Amino acid sequence: MSLNLQSDLFSQEIVTEKNGELLVSSLVIAENVQNSHETVMRLIKENITELREFGTVEFTDLKSENSNGGRPIKITHLNENQSMLIMSFMRNNEIVKRFKVNLVKAFSLMKQKLSQSNFNIPQTFSEALLLASKQAEQIELQEKLLLEQKPKVEFFEAVTNSKTAFDMAKVAKVLDKNIGRNKLFEFLREKKVLQKDNIPFQTFIDRGYFRVIESKYTKPDGSTNISLKTLVYQKGVNYINKLLEREGE
């Protein structure tokens, strides 16, 4: 069964090809999520460290006839992984959800176009059969890829809308990687994200991944003690998820 990649795309060209790389501009993202370009650029800069884990992010000047005196504005272009990541940081509404779908379709369509442009026109019946077989294999691989990506999309949806921080037990449940709370603590200690007492190193707190809170509890003898508890923000959940994927957890 073939994918209907061309249906329901927005009127403008979403994905472009530059030097063999497929990219989407910050202007296109802003227009399609119906938000200001300034807001989209701010979100990109706030998450620049995470975005650069998937490739370079360069900012260029674009002359704008709409700005005062035609002053240039800063724009950037994101690759497929980067654009999917930045979309996961946006608050969901119908417009944003629709564009996420269209963005996936646009990248798939452009890959298909580039792949087809390299095909030679078959000259014999046997060559035509071979070409049809290869196309069927590509479609099957694309459908398999979409199915493999579905759990990742559901994961991002689960945390994107939350402004709160999760305890480690909740993080383990959301990640659904067959790893429990204690094993997750152990894994993060091994990766030098957490210290021996399960408190994050300061660099990861500064990145906005974690929050440490004080919790009071009463001992059997009636005395009161204070313990520290590590909570994880959505950016931290995303970071932990990537660490686990690299380890094949």
From TrEMBL:
GO terms for molecular function: DNA binding. Pfam families: ANT, Phage_pRha. It comes from the Bacteria. Residues 145-245 form the Antirepressor protein C-terminal domain. InterPro entries: Ant_C (IPR005039), Phage_regulatory_Rha (IPR014054). This is Transcriptional regulator.
